[in-house]
Design a protein that fits this description.
By secondary structure, this protein is of the alpha+beta class. Among the domains are: 5-50, Helicase, Ruva Protein, domain 3 (Orthogonal Bundle); 52-149, Tetrahydropterin Synthase, Chain A (2-Layer Sandwich); 195-255, GTP Cyclohydrolase I, Chain A, domain 1 (Orthogonal Bundle). It has 12 helices and 8 strands. Strands 1-2-3 form a 3-stranded antiparallel beta sheet. Helix 1 (5-15) crosses helix 2 and helix 1 (5-15) packs across helix 3 (33-50).
Length: 295
């Protein structure tokens, strides 16, 4: 069968692949476009597997909240470059992943990966991810997600661009208040809601540091203890949500803001793209050449 330009064009539109790759696939399948699509998918998935070990520390945070504001989901999907994360295919994939988290409440990333990307009986999220890798030529990974549900509260999210995302669960108050608190968390990075949530090891480590600093002061033991307690109180105010000055009105703490509104933050999660991932440092010129060579 003759391999026409129209046939190559149709295959390119269906697969998003290059002209020569499409033409070669059609030659191998004797012009059968369905077989060519399947052949390219198989080859693409094989390429995706080869890219799985490459560091993906860029990407985006995507969040979605149910219409009744009682459920919310937030996911981090990583790519190798921020350029890819701004493209529509990446955004569509990330949005679909967040929707599955919201609706299906998977136990973990592995369980999420097995869900159908469209919520029906089609391709799994992992299969769709592999196809996206094959199409754009970068490693793509669904790194983590969080899901809140509270029939007696409000779930709100705030995205600072696509790199920082916050989800808050609020009892009492309003949607506007919940979003303001989420915005504050994005900016101020509290560790936990209040003192009860401060990890014991964090508190003990800070206490040890303060004791070492106070000993050099030469003051009596009872004065040193008061100094330590005062500094610990200041430390806790700095790292707890309720103790921090509210970003939109620094004259009052978030705790006072919530109390005046008759509200309480029951939990929150803050994601920042790539946090904790060791990024590979590359020479920009070498990186461009690597992409040109298709590696």
């Amino acid at each position: 069968m003759a391999i026409t330009a129209a046939l190559v064009k149709e295959l390119r539109e269906r697969t998003g692949s290059g002209m020569m790759e499409c033409k070669n696939a059609l030659v191998e399948t004797n012009g059968d476009i369905e077989q060519a699509v399947e052949l390219m998918r198989k080859r693409g998935l094989a390429k995706a597997d080869k890219k799985a070990d490459r560091v993906a520390a860029e990407g985006a945070i995507t969040a979605v909240v149910s219409d009744d504001k009682q459920r919310g989901a937030m996911v981090e999907v990583n790519s190798e470059t921020d350029f890819v994360s701004t493209g529509e295919p990446f955004k569509e994939f990330s949005g679909a992943v967040a929707a599955r988290v919201l609706e299906n409440n998977p136990a973990d990333v592995d369980a999420l990966s097995e869900l159908a990307i469209d919520g029906a009986q089609g391709s799994s999220i992992n299969h769709a991810r592999q196809e996206l890798v094959a199409k754009i030529g970068e490693n793509i990974q669904v790194r983590r997600f969080v899901r809140f549900e509270n029939a007696n509260g409000i779930v709100a999210t705030y995205l600072h661009g696509t790199r920082i995302g916050v989800m808050v669960e609020l009892e009492g108050g309003s949607e506007e208040l919940a979003r303001d608190v989420a915005m504050h968390i994005a900016a101020s990075k509290p560790v936990c809601v209040d003192e009860d949530g401060v990890p014991a090891d964090v508190l003990e480590k800070e206490r040890e540091i303060l004791i070492a600093q106070a000993k050099d002061s030469g003051k009596p033991a009872d004065i040193i203890e008061k100094m330590i307690q005062g500094r610990l109180k200041k430390f806790l105010a700095e790292i707890t949500l309720v103790g921090q000055p509210f970003v939109k009105d620094p004259d009052q703490t978030v705790g006072k803001l919530l109390k005046d509104a008759g509200a309480k933050v029951t939990r929150f999660t803050r994601f920042e793209v790539g946090e904790g991932i060791e990024k590979k440092q590359e020479n920009f010129a070498d990186e461009v050449m690597a992409q040109v060579r298709g590696s």
